[in-house]
Amino acid sequence: MMKTRKGYTVYPLTKAQKFHFFYQSMCPKKEVLNIGTSLTIQVELDWRLLKECIYKAYDRCECMRIRFASDKEGNWYQYVVDKEERDIEFVDFTGKTMEAAENIMKEWTSVPFKREDSPMNRIVMIRTPDGFDGVYLLADHMIMDAQSLICFLRDIIELYSNQMYDNVPYPKDMSSYIEQLKKDLAYEAGCKAKDRDEEFFRKIIEESEPIYNGITGIELSKEREISGNPNLRAAVNVSDSVDSALDIFHLEEEPTRRLMDFCEEYHVSLACLLLMGLRTYFQKMNGNDDVSINTAIARRATLKEKKSGGTRIHSFPFRTIISQEKTFLEGIYEIRDKQNEYFRHANYDPVSYFAYRSQLYPNEPGRTYEPMALTYQPMTLKEQGLEKLGDIKYKTKWYPNGATTQAMYLTVMHRPDDNGLDFNFEHQVKAVSKEKLEYLYYYLCKIMFKGTENPNLSIGEIMKLV
Predict the structure, then answer these.
(1) What does the pLDDT look like over 10-55, one tens digit per residue?
(2) What is the enclosing helix (H) or strand (E) of 260?
(3) Distance CA 24, CA 42 (A)
(4) What is the SS3 assignment for 108?
(5) Cβ count within 10 A of residue 352
(6) What one-character-per-residue DSSP string does 120-189 give?
(7) Which of 195, 224, 281, 298 gives a 20 to 30 Å CA spacing to 308?
């Protein structure tokens, strides 16, 4: 067992990190863990000062200084170095088209990191062809998730703004990644909370075997035919290729506002509404009241967790059995209550969840009950203190890495310019076509609007009306 590396204390990987490590090891394209994003502002930036602020942000954020190392047995560990000394590059895209600039950043996003003892992120200061200035940030999912990425970018902006503008205060400190890591490792080593969480999820798994719902409604019957088992409840939804595309559908500001108003009025999160919309779509297509979708839980309840960086996402199947007789609103409340229970137990290890489930309901490798995964990203830079800068326009963009081990992954986020919603579908090109996604998106919106306008209609009636 490794104790130190280059004079730094080493720590084991957390369950959230092992989850990523596990699917990356199965994936032929190692860039599957890359997250690339850019944030640009319609202001000419002082590059020397920006560089200083980036170094300062590195100093303040332990997770950006994580390194990984393996021992002779092939076990991986992590440690945090004191300083980030690499040069920060500057790339000027002036004179290129926006498309050409974005393609270059996509290429950057598809280059995997070297794992052993090397930095797991890259920052480039950029000027885009439309005259916006800012940064491109690439990070490995083992050290960051979307929330810690946004947190880090925000820190750079606030450090810079504090230097440039009189009325912007110096940003509050980040929390310690190592302190949070020690807490996570103590939980994993065993405690009463962990026992309760395990009991909660095992009970859910033991209730009964879930059933697969496909995007077109015919997938399971096809699978039953191929297997010769008329009672089969799981299906293969991935293709033999991990090549992925990102298709984005935009919901305008005004209809987004209507959905948000509904959530406010009925005290539910937009994630609940999205889940309700998706499960109703699958219910309509497949004729099952029993629907499972993978959902991501951020595990950032406390302020320390919010600001400690790292990767904290745990992803679990979210199964609901809601009859068509129930009203749309009753369905949403059922989802809300169940989600709240999940949040309370979300520290449980997702890999253990899937291992226990496949032990109880053995299936051939590759078969699953969930057609897709959903993440809702409520955290936008808009609410994150940027409004202090007045009406300065800014843009954020996410770049696909070109690979995914899942058939279909939907991330819903707010656009910075108008707070409308972007539905980002990352999908295996060979598993799910763009046409199928358009169909799903179209019906998902119809269901959500029909349901929010008539929350007391039964689910069955709504399915007939859309």
Answers:
(1) 999 999 999 898 888 888 899 999 999 999 999 899 999 999 999 9
(2) helix 253-266
(3) 37
(4) helix
(5) 14
(6) SEEEEEEE-TTS-EEEEEEEETTTB-HHHHHHHHHHHHHHHHHHH-TTPPPPPPPPPHHHHHHHHHHHHH
(7) 195
